[in-house]
Structures are given as structure tokens and as C-alpha cells.
Amino acid sequence: MRGLLFLFFCFWVVGAEAQRDSTITLVRQIPLAATDFAVDNLGNLYVITPDNQLVKFNAKGDSVAAYNEVKRYGTLSEVDVTNPLKILLYYKDFMTVLALDSYLSRLFKIDLRQIQIFQASTVALAYDNNFWVFDEQNAQLKKIGDQGTAVMTSNDFRQLFGESIVPQEIVDQGGLVYLNDSSQGIYLFDYYGGFKVKLSFKGVRGLTVFGKNIFGIMGNELFSYRPGTLQEQHAVLPFPVKEAVRIQIVAGGMYVLRGGMLYYYKVR
Predict the structure, then answer these.
(1) pLDDT for 111-129, tens place per residue?
(2) In 3D, which of 14, 24, 19 has the Cα closest to residue 266?
(3) CA distance 74 to 93
(4) What is the DSSP string of 94-113?
(5) What pLDDT does residue 19 have?
(6) Could you please report the per-residue DSSP string of 181-200?
(7) In what order do the strands lie in the sheet with 185-189?
(8) Could you tell me the CA-to-CA distances from 28 to 12, 98, 258, 266 in Å, in that order?
(9) Cα separation of 116 and 148, whole Å?
């Protein structure tokens, strides 16, 4: 495993943006026994193994840490590795958020039900190391601190939009918070919950933001868009999306887990 991972990470590519008529080229692939994965901005790879371990590999391919209690709070719904020093795990069935440090040791556990949040579609790390959660029952975006207290609560979105929003993804990037509801569109807010704009792109998944550029998977295409412009771009993926367990878009490319293999594709 170590040697294969080392060869894989040697071909890490950063810094490019998808352009019109983008090409997607397979760079490397390795066998990987995993049910899910994530890659952070330092090149660390986090793997959920079939025996329910969370294993961290550094950019050289060395296994450097493991968390053995992945299933303790039920099925793991999300892993957020935005900050390599504070990894968020979200268990939607039990409304529980865990934070792990860079060694995958537990920092804290928060049961959202204890702070009167009984339905939360998704969570994400905030720029200030608190975390965002969307309270479905009250239709509010909330920022929660490490002690489980709400440090920011938005207005009721039903009153603001006159429609129900259930975001599947939250992204905090560049002074904005992006809420992606694949059936409605992408909503942009400031850090105080103030609404900025709605982008009417439906069916987007794997929402990723670099600077002001938005990326995601739409149908069987890689999609990109820069708000305030007409620079909407699409590139057909060289594999069926339905076969992918996870697709993670990174600067200059994307990782894909499918069929027991982890693939890295360069995008240019």
C-alpha cells in the first residue's frame, strides 16, 4: 500500500482551473480497499476502510494515524477535512458531530439534539473553526462553537425565499457561505447569514469553490462557473458517474473512487 500511495501522490497537480473545452486526463490509479475517502489541502488522504477504520496517509503515502471508532455513532454521513488540524465527522442518524485533531484523536463530541437541532441535513467547517449546520426544522443556517452553543443564527429562510431549502452541501470559502440544494440551486450568503444571490443550477453535487470559481458534478459532466460572468463550462467525464463511490474535485483535477480503485484525473 505504501509504495502504491507514494507513486500516486507523486503526481499531485495543483493550481489549474477548468477552461472551456476542458480535457480530463487520467494521470494515476491505485488499488484501494475503501468505502469512502477525502483529501485535504496538504495532500493527506483519509480512507474509510471496509472494517470501519478511518486511516490517514500523508502525502508520501505513509499511514500516520487511525481512528477506530467510526461506527460508534452509527453510519458516518460526512467527513470534512477542510482544516487538517480539525477533522469533522457527521452522523446524521444520531445528529452527532465529532471533531478529530491531526492525529485523529477526539477533540469534542456534540449531540445537536441537545441544542434543539433535531433535523440537520449537513454540516461543514467554518472559516473560524466553528462549524456550520443547517437546521431543517427551523429553516436556519447556524454556526456552532466547540462547546455546542450557537454563535450565529440566520433568519428563517422560508420567510426569505418563500420556498423550502434543504441543502445537501455547505461550503465556506472566500468570505461567503455556499448552500447547495440540488433541487433548487446554489445560495450564497455572507458570514452573518445575509443573502447575496441564488444561482439556479440544479442537480449539482460535489460542490467545490476555489477563489470565486464554483465547481461540481452535473449529470455526467464536470461543471464550473464564476458568479457574475457568463463563464459556465462543462467537460464530459470519462467514466459513468453512477459507478463512482466518491468524486472529490481539487485544484487542477479530481479524485474518483470506483471499482476498488482510486483514480486521479488532471483537468486542463
Answers:
(1) 999 999 999 999 999 999 9
(2) 24
(3) 7
(4) GTEEEEE-TTS-EEEEEEGG
(5) 38
(6) ETTTEEEEE-TTS-EEEEE-
(7) 169-173, 176-181, 185-189, 195-199
(8) 9, 32, 13, 9
(9) 11
Residue type, 59: A
Measured CA distances, 42 to 37, 72, 137, 195, 203 (Å): 15, 28, 36, 32, 29
- pLDDT attached to residue 235: 93
CA neighbours closer than 13 Å in the CB half-sphere of residue 92: 14
- Can you tell me which residue has the cell 461550503? 171
Handedness of CA 41, 45, 48, 52 (dihedral sign): negative
Q: Which of 60, 25, 18, 26 is nearest to 43 (CA)?
A: 60
Question: What's the average model confidence in pLDDT over 170-181?
Answer: 97
Cell, residue 192: 452573518
Residue 14 CB burial class (10 angstroms; 0-12, 13-18, ≥19): exposed
Average pLDDT over residues 25-54: 96
The arithmetic mean of pLDDT across residues 71-92, rounded, is: 95
Global pTM value = 0.89
Torsion of CA 59, 61, 64, 66, to 10 degrees: 110
Dig out the grid coordinates for 266 from the structure. Answer: 488532471
Q: Identity (one letter) of the amino acid at 212?
A: K
DSSP string, 143-183: EE-TTS-EEEE---HHHHHSS----SEEEEETTEEEEEETT
Report how far residue 181's alpha carbon sits from residue 218's, in angstroms, rounded to the nearest whole number: 13
